[in-house]
Amino acid sequence: MIRLPISGVRAHWRPATGTDDIALADSQPGLAGARAYLARIALLADGTPLDAGTLPVGDLDLLVLARRRELRGDTLVAEGQCEQCGSPVDVQFSLAAYAEHHRPRTSRRVTGAEPGWYLLHAHEVSFRVPVVADVLAAAEADDPRAALLARCVRQPLSARAARAVEQVMAILAPTLRAEVAGSCPECSAPVLLDVNVRELCMSELRFFAASVYDDVNLIASVYRWSQNAILELPSARRRRYADLIAGHPAEQPLSGVGVG
User: Fold this and answer.
1) SS3 string of 98-165?
2) Is 43 within the bounds of a domain?
3) Which of 89, 99, 137, 226 lies at a C-alpha separation of 20 to 30 Å from 146?
4) Per residue of the chain (260 residues), what is the pLDDT tens digit?
């Protein structure tokens, strides 16, 4: 069970199947793809489906990060290029440490006006933190920044007040997109990589899920099970069958084993 730090929502994963893996492997990059993935696979504490569109973006980021840690481990490698000499640069870091460093914090500049809303004292502005649905809707507008503020702030804003609201939002509900520092292996110059952890993790999860196609082909070739029967298996069990076949090829098809 994962407690999301911004919303306080508690969530967990239901066992994935091959059908889920295909949906993930074929999903599009970006926030909408991550929302669709979590809406499919994540559950609330009471077992009901999670409405990922209602989460602050930072909470959605953390869920994706947690899923990647569970399936692929804690270490992530971000790739970039040295601006000084042009050499490729890799920066390796811990996802757990990264998430801890970018955890939400409180601010003395605001108080809780009512559930879900804050009052920014200096400008007498009432606002809420953006959720995924806000960001996706605002992205369709001619001015996404203005559209997002309009959805999340009750009063008209001056330019100064808008900047102040955005600064406090970043403290209360940070996303997991940030710069990661490293050094160039060739010229030793300092390097800052713009790291979108959610998208890096989703890219790896898609790549991992895409093995479903090879698994189905392998299992169907040996056991003669139908595609639907294989896809209905829990993902971990399907991968185990595929690993066993790849490591110990059967002399005869096992057409009578447990799945129709």
Assistant:
1) HHHHCCCCCCCCEEEEECCEEEEHHHCEEECCCEHHHHHHHCCCCCHHHHHHHHHECCCCCHHHHHHH
2) yes
3) 99
4) 999 999 999 999 999 999 999 999 999 999 999 999 999 999 999 999 999 999 999 999 999 999 999 999 999 999 999 999 999 999 899 999 999 999 999 999 999 878 899 999 999 999 999 999 999 999 999 999 999 999 999 999 999 999 999 999 999 999 999 988 888 999 999 999 999 999 999 999 999 999 999 999 999 999 999 999 999 999 999 999 999 999 855 444 444 444 44
Residue type, 127: F
Domain that holds residue 37: 2-101+177-208
Supply the pTM of this predicted model: 0.89
Rounded CA Rg of the chain: 22
Distances (CA, A) of 187 to 80, 87, 190: 14, 9, 9
φ/ψ of 49, rounded to 5, equals -60, 145
C-alpha 36 chain-centroid distance: 11
80/184 same-domain check? yes
| Judgement on whether residues 83 and 44 belong to the same structural domain of the protein | yes
